């Protein structure tokens, strides 16, 4: 029962955070440029190839088996499906990382708490970004004065 309660609360908190970030991106009038879309897609493509240990040709063959005829079509589908996430990512890069200060000490503490498998310098920027995003979400939640009522 407690596991289910915690799961529900985590899911709800994630949903609230996504909605708050999306609303803030709209308020800040964050727009994706063609270059943003290209860069995001290129990064995603490289990550997929690396994770799946595939060449570009092997990836294209796998996509074609799923009915996606070209990388250009895959990019179109990816951008359409990920648009909100990409806009939020841009909000974080362009605004949050400037507004929210995260100290090296905070980054190091989280690194040590989580026992990452990678070396500190490899994940430092990622941890800093996550901490800044979490602090920003906390600020947005306070401003929004959100109350959560879960049925027992």
Structure description:
With 152 residues, the chain is mainly α. It is 79% helix and 0% strand. It contains six helices and no strands. The termini are close together.
What's this entry about, in short?
With 152 residues, this protein is mainly α.
Beta content comes to under 5%
Radius of gyration: 19 Å
Distance from N terminus to C terminus (CA atoms, Å) equals: 10 Å
* Alpha plus pi helix count: 6
Please, what is the oligomeric state?
A: single chain
Number of strands: 0
Low-confidence runs (pLDDT<50, min 5 residues)? none
Share of helix, binned: over 70%
3D shape: globular
Outline the biggest β-sheet: none
| Helix/strand order, N-terminal first | HHHHHH
Category by helix and strand content: mainly alpha
Overall pLDDT metric: 90
Topology:
Elements lengths: L1 H26 L6 H19 L3 H10 L5 H29 L4 H11 L5 H25 L8
Helix pairs in contact: 1-4, 1-6, 2-4, 4-6, 5-6
Task: Name its key features.
152 residues; mainly alpha; 0% strand; globular
